[in-house]
Amino acid sequence: MAEEIGFPLIIKAAAGGGGIGMQVVNDDDDFESALNLCQGRALSAFGDGRVFIEKFIEGAQHIEFQVLSDGKKAIHFGERFCSIQRRHQKIIEEGPWLSDDVRKEIGEIVVKGAKLVGYEGLATFEFLRDREGNFYFLEVNPRVQVEHTVTEMIAGVRSCSIRNKNCCR
Questions:
Q1: Which residues sit opposite 80 in a β-bridge?
Q2: What sequence ranges are listed for the domain ATP-grasp (predicted)?
Q3: What is the pLDDT of residue 63?
Q4: What per-residue confidence (pLDDT) applies to 104?
Q5: What is the pLDDT along the chain (169 residues), one digit of tens a residue?
Q6: Is the overall model pTM greater than 0.90, yes or no?
Q7: Among 22, 24, 60, 169, fewest CB within 10 Å belongs to which?
Q8: Exposed, middle or buried, 129 (CB in 10 Å: 0-12/13-18/19+)?
Q9: What angle do CA 51, 91, 34 make, to 5 degrees?
Q10: In terms of CATH architecture, what is 61-162?
């Protein structure tokens, strides 16, 4: 599977978070030892040794969109630029950062995603953007994240106080 994905790739703990159990692998010679290392870290940190692998995007920017949905309608509050990190932990999050056209395009995608699955509540859609400007879906966190205060300041809304109301009219 590693050869199918291609190098460089990244191994991640399936039950993990916060960058724990992640390892970038640049070639096949290092894959087996990195896999064993990540499985051991995942088991130790999360009680679950399962891992998955993804293509590693060198120099990628980390961008998040917070979405509020009532299960039928959804809105987004724009993006947070999360690329300033240390050891896979975000240090500074800023926004707005994208061009209006790109914000509109990605915003429509995250709203559509929330509506398609009938999601209710706050969620954060995360993406990586490569040097050519291509976006790659990373994950959805279906919860209020610590960083929601950044979005609230930017958008001028109190997302936690309105998440249970029908605010998507």
A1: 64
A2: 2-168
A3: 87
A4: 94
A5: 778 888 999 999 999 877 787 899 999 999 999 999 999 999 999 999 999 999 999 888 888 888 989 989 998 888 876 644 555 555 555 566 778 898 899 999 999 999 999 999 889 898 998 999 999 998 898 866 656 556 666 666 665 555 555 454 4
A6: no
A7: 169
A8: buried
A9: 25
A10: 2-Layer Sandwich (3.30)
Residue 32: the pLDDT is: 95
Q: Amino acid identity, residue 63?
A: I
The full set of domain ranges for the chain reads 2-55, 61-162
Measured CA to CA, the distance from residue 26 to residue 10 in angstroms comes to: 9
CA distance linking residue 160 with residue 131, whole number of Å: 34
Q: 2-55 has which CATH code? A: 3.30.1490.20
Amino acid sitting at position 160: C
For residue 151, what are its two tokens?
A: 């979005």
- In the set 143, 158, 163, 169, the catalytic residue is 143
- 2-55 and 61-162 have identical folds: no
Q: Cα-flanking dihedrals φ and ψ of residue 137, to 5°? A: -65, 135
Q: What is the largest CA-CA distance in the chain?
A: 55
